[in-house]
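R.M. (postdoc): so does anyone remember the format we settled on? I'll just put the C-alpha cells first.
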C-alpha cells in the first residue's frame, strides 16, 4: 500500500461514517412521520457499507498497483453501497383522533426505534473519530519524515 493512499482510505471512512450519521439523524427526525410523499408512514433507512473496489484500470492506477507492497493493488477504503428501507412491520398505535387513523382507530407508526438510532449514531461518531485519529497519525508521520532531511 502506498503511503499516500492511507489518506484516501481514512477520507473514505470519514465520508461513509458521516453518511451513516446523517441517516441515523434522518431516522430520528422522522420517528413520528405518518405520511410521506409515497403516502404511507416513514420507514427506517439502513446504510450498507462495502469495501471500495480496486480502482486499477487507468494507467496511473495500474502503475501504482504494480509498485505497491507485494505487487498487489491496494484497496481503496470503504463506501456506502446502498441505503435501503427497513422492511420490518410498522407499529400500530391506537389514536382514533389522528387524521391518518384507519377505520379501527389505529395509526401505523414508523418502524424507528429511537434507542437503536441513538446507538447507531454514537457508533458512527466513534468510527468517524477513529478515522480522524488515523488521518492525523498519518499526517504526523509525513511531517516527521520530511524533518529527517533537515
Amino acid at each position: 500500500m502506498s503511503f499516500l493512499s492511507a489518506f484516501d482510505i481514512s477520507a473514505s471512512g470519514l465520508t461513509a461514517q458521516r453518511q451513516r450519521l446523517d441517516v441515523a439523524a434522518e431516522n430520528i427526525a422522522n420517528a413520528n412521520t405518518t405520511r410521506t410523499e409515497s403516502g404511507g408512514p416513514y420507514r427506517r433507512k439502513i446504510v450498507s457499507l462495502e469495501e471500495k473496489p480496486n480502482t486499477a484500470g487507468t494507467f496511473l492506477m495500474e502503475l501504482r498497483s504494480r509498485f505497491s507492497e507485494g505487487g498487489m493493488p491496494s484497496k481503496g477504503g470503504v463506501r456506502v453501497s446502498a441505503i435501503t428501507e427497513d422492511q420490518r412491520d410498522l407499529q400500530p398505535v391506537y389514536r382514533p383522533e389522528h387524521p391518518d387513523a384507519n377505520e379501527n382507530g389505529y395509526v401505523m407508526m414508523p418502524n424507528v426505534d429511537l434507542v437503536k438510532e441513538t446507538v447507531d449514531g454514537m457508533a458512527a461518531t466513534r468510527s468517524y473519530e477513529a478515522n480522524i485519529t488515523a488521518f492525523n497519525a498519518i499526517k504526523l508521520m509525513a511531517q516527521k519524515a520530511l524533518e529527517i532531511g533537515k
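R.M.: ...and that's the designed sequence above, right after the C-alpha cells. Also worth knowing: The chain has three helices and four strands. The longest helix spans residues 114-148.
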